[in-house]
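Alkyl hydroperoxide reductase/ thiol specific antioxidant/ Mal allergen
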Amino acid sequence: MPSVGGDGPMKRRTLLAGVGSVGVLAGAGGILSGAIPIDSFTEPRSANTPSGNGDGTDGDDGPIELETIEATGSEAGTLEVPNDGVTVAMFFAPSCGNCQALMPQLRAARDELKEEYGDDLTVVSLTAERDHDELREWWDEHDGNWYLGFQSGRSLAGSYQVVGYPVVIIIDENGEKHRHMTGNPDARKLKYAIEPELEAYRERAAETEDEEDGADSDENESESESTAADTANESERESGETETSSDSSA
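Predicted structure tokens:
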């Protein structure tokens, strides 16, 4: 799949659909200060478990597809969540002052983490705004340089109980939401929230790789034992044939 901006090759990601058609805010505190509420259309659910099938989808099989647009660091296409890394999703509206203030903070945190974690991290910003020309102008004005999408169809916001903006959520490769931040956290807070999830992902990936290597090793050992046994049996047969031949000659 083609590379997009600074976020590397397209990966598996669930769709972040319209901010205007969203679910309810997760967390015991309800709507936190700094986030602008939007009417929800779903009933409250658990804070970390997505609605629908409980696998990050809205009841359909597979991940949700996000439609991305052509802009700095992004290109027209699709993006899926969950994927083979950690996804940081920012829900915003161009007219929102806190959203504008959040952009450089997210940019600073993302750029620093990208140096260490590369394609293990994907950042995407989502809005209900559909005027692509105005959206691209806003994006460049606020130094966006990662995936940019608009929300339609199945909703990541609905799946992960997001309401209002700005909201930042962190989703792992299994579709589990680990953080739900509202308002305008600074770059330091964003980094400290995201980095532990990247470390945990790498640990899980390393464990999976070790398990696969162990399985391959066991399979190779079994094949070697089988080959040795076959060789021994063949030698015994050849030895028996030689003895029979000798007896016949005598």
